[in-house]
Amino acid sequence: MVKDIPEELLRRYLGGDGLNAYLLFNYLPLDTDALSPDNVLIFGAGMLTGHCDVSLSRFQITAKSPETGGFGTSNAGGFFGPELRFAGFQHLVITGKARRPTYLWVHDGEIEFKDASFVWSKDVYETQQLLMAKMSNPDIQIATIGCGGENLVRFACVMHGLKRAAGRTGMGCVMGSKMLKAVVVKGSQSVNAYSPERMKDVFDKHLKQVTSTKLYPVISRYGTLTIFAIQNEGGQIPVMNHQYNYFEAAEENLEDEIFEERYKTKTLACFSCPLRCSHRYRIKYGPYQGVWGEGPEYYMMAGFGPMVGNNQWDVILAANDLINRYGLDIGSVGGYIGWLMELWQRGILTERDTGGSNLKWGNPDAIMRLINQMAHNEGLGGMVGQSASHAAEEIGKGSDRYLYQQRGLMHECSVGNRASRATALAEATTNRGYDHLRGRVALEFFGIPTDALAKIFGRPIASDFQAWEGKPYMAMWQQHFTTVIDSLGYCKFATVWPGSTGNLTYKEFAETINAVTGWDVTPQELMVTGERIWNLERMIVLRETGIGREGDIPPRVYFEPNKLEPLKGEKLDREEYEARLDEYYELRGWNKDGTPKQETLARLKLDEEPSHLI
Amino acid sequence: MSLKTFFVQSALCSGCRLCQLVCSVAKEGIVNPELSRVFVNRIIMDGVMLPCICLNCEEPPCIPACHRKAINKDPDTGWVTIDYERCTHCQLCIPACPYGGIFLGPQKEVLMCDVCGGDPACAMACPTGALRFLSREIGTAGEHMPLS
């Protein structure tokens, strides 16, 4: 069934993340199990995705999460989102379950169900190659699962290309539960703009803007790998399952320049993106000789470096290739492997539990074996893949003490922000679980003068990232901002999100929206739109899990002091955190239990949801 | 004024297709990479990105291939363009082009670059320098082009 999206809804929720949340809230039946055919799997291109502006490549996948039982949502770049628009669609809402492996063929206003038996059990690379060969078209865009999703690993992701991943919250597991191997799109339709002339002018301006920043030459050369040294040398990287905050062994080993010299073979970009942060690589020598792939990001580098006690690039790159081929979420896989290794360190796990593997820190064979086990549902890794955070109950023996999760979502394997204030608060209070993509407030880390911060945020904000003044507001501001980005389809690296003040912000978003739609959107309206979507997502979380305040508290380690310099002794003070959480709720117009007040919902026009306008 | 044409350095191409986007906006007023007069062949599994566009040949094979004499090379600028008053979209020029620089749009229309009158939008938008519009005197792309 094909429906038009009413303009009223577009203006209220934009697209991508926002409209996906609206569709989930409206279409998901109450008390639905995440793996039941009734779960609703939604693909959504951003409202501006495919249009003529920089870095408009993103799409969002949303469903009830099989990893958490709550709000499942994840965002990816590449070419899939724009192609969906060129095929004539902004969102796909998929319910039910196929009787046999199936893929969707979406092209120029048509959607066909096709037999996917010939690619079932094939890895992510091979699946795409075979589909391109079958359809005699190398230019189709494919979102697919690997055997992680097929085997219902709770944190299986959806892959596009070799590395673009809608990674977190197990959207690939939902696809697997529906026997949906892939969604294949190709379109030749146009995306029209209200004013092409204005759009062209806006594009020229934005292109100049994002290619003139200090960030540009760095990110277009090293991608996010460049963040590693900043985080490690700043004492803000999780080491050996969050036991430490600095990894000395990484020095002179895990460096972006070493990757560039020894492994990188090509620089690539997503659709319409001048930043080109993707890399192809090939391992030329050693035990992993011949392994090739795309990526990794900082996330992989930290998650399979310090987090698991490894300082070898080869191991990170080989693990990256395996994970991408299987379609697993790096954030959770790295987190669970780190957790299992700490259990080994503490004697909670022994060779009897691991099937003979030695889970000492950094052991490459153990890392690869656990990834293989997770993907194929075998042994200890398989149990973790099927149980996610409930694995601690299976293992027992106090293992839950070392498992750091929020709302059932494994804590990100590469993020440790207990020394910061706005970032810790913003990341910990996100709706899907701890989430740097919604909460990282990079602007707090650069010692920006208070008057400059006041200009951006309209109120006094402490310049020091370890001070609390103004930080609850800064956290809320960032959450709305990232929500608008994900709903419009921009990549966050083209915006001020990574801390590059010359990049795009609400003003530029409004310029593009107005050129494309002819509306008169203002930055103020967009901020309210972000708040509306954020509150709707909170309504989904509350409806599905009932978890409010308790889910907004970061894991135990955040309240324990850092063990190493720099930032030795730093931690969040629990009492102070609770007080600031109250302040944050008050700013939001929420109750102290983390639920929105009725008048807040009314102010945001959410009191009539679900409104079933589509 | 020195004569200009396109220089392609595919090793620098990141495959972002900004060139296609801005081309469709410049020529058609809409966003549709399939209506572009430049096309990036993205051989994604191999990581090969190959931008194709009319290179304004010295002796363009598309000219004799056209039975309607609709393709012309301007003797002053060296630019090769289609006269759409004469073109019947018969597509004979497409296989004649050795560089794959002439394209077929969604409505089976023949699409060929006209260098935007000398200020091509695609080269302006290319962030990597993979596609440049430069004096022919610079020689071959790989040897003499400044790296971005």
Question: Which features would summarize this protein structure in a list?
Answer:
heterodimer, A: 614 residues, alpha+beta, Aldehyde Ferredoxin Oxidoreductase,  A, domain 1, Aldehyde Ferredoxin Oxidoreductase Protein, subunit A, domain 2, Aldehyde Ferredoxin Oxidoreductase Protein, subunit A, domain 3, 3 domains, four-stranded antiparallel sheet, 25 helices, globular, B: Alpha-Beta Plaits, two-stranded antiparallel sheet
Number of strands of chain A: 15
Order of helices and strands of chain B: EHEEHEEHEEHEH
How much β-strand is present in the residues of chain A?
5-15%
Q: What is the typical, i.e. mean, pLDDT of chain A?
A: 97
Examine the coordinates and then state which fold CATH places here, giving the name of the CATH topology of the largest domain in chain A: Aldehyde Ferredoxin Oxidoreductase Protein, subunit A, domain 2
Low-confidence stretches of chain B: none
Described by its quaternary structure, the protein is heterodimer
CATH class division of the largest domain in chain A: Mainly Alpha
Q: What would you give as the CATH superfamily of the largest domain in chain A?
A: Aldehyde Ferredoxin Oxidoreductase Protein, subunit A, domain 2
- List unreliable stretches of 5+ residues of chain A: none
Nearest-angstrom radius of gyration of chain B?
15 Å
Largest beta sheet of chain A: what is the strand line-up? Answer: 6-5-10-7-8-9
Q: Helix content range of the residues of chain A, please?
A: 25-40%
Cα(first) to Cα(last) distance of chain B is 24 Å
Structural class, judged by helices and strands of chain B? Answer: alpha+beta
Helical stretch tally of chain B: 5
Give me the CATH fold name of chain B: Alpha-Beta Plaits
- Please give the radius of gyration of chain A in angstroms: 22 Å
